[in-house]
Amino acid sequence: MCRHLAYLGPATSLAALIFEGANSLERQSWAPTMMRQGGTVNVDGFGVGWFPAAPDEARADVGSEADAPLLYRRTGPIWNDHGFAEMSTVVGTRAALAAVRSATVGMPISEEACAPFRHGRWLFSHNGLLPGWPDSATRLIETLPTAALATSGATDSALLWAWLRARLDAGDPPASAVRDLVGAAAQIPGSRLNLLLTDGSTVVASTWTHSLFVQSAPGRLMVSSEPLDTAEGWTEVPDASLLVATRDEIDITPIHPAPSRGRL
Ligand code: GLN
Prior knowledge:
The protein is 20% helix and 30% strand. It is of the alpha+beta class. InterPro entries: EgtC, EgtC-like, EgtC_Actinobacteria, Gamma-glu_amide_hydrolase, GATase_2_dom, Ntn_hydrolases_N.
């Protein structure tokens, strides 16, 4: 399954977020350690969405709210994009969401299928799958406004994003929208639903079968499928949880009820 991360904190470079650390996201694309039988490598594309900031501007308190996020997505393995590796050293941000992809069997390899998905200020990623998609998702699809369907791409993740986007557009609080989406999609047996959503000031994440870790320091938050380094301070988010976090606060609550699961 894919690996993803979200960062809120002092200005840093995309390179620091994606390439640094003994178990960086880039390394997780070819040597992930916690795939839980959901694939072996993450080579079917990658993406990063970020709120731009000058790298030397270390004002964590200001946030990144002024600008909409920028997006960079490619269909190949991240290690093969040498231009991105160079460019990322000079791109600054205080808030970003990045992912490396292992396409679920039967899903297209395309830029549109790579997370993050973007809508206004929102960036979204899904680590997991809906078994039997699209037929198994009929009930989810039926609840969607037609306009959301028209813009949804041809993957299970894009469908989940269309559902969530419709709820966010309707003004639902992001945390309850993510929680409700997990509840609805988990009705499909065997669903894996690690969702990750940010608007640059809040991160909302769910765990539903896949791993997720959090590391925090005053004014700084990192949420990641796997610890990015061997340093202390990574806390595993329990399965079936909803994480809602800002730069300074983390709230983790169980997602209830827990519908029946497929086997790992
Ligand atoms: N099912 C999604 C896709 O095909 C996500 C895959 C994953 O988490 N590996 O893109």
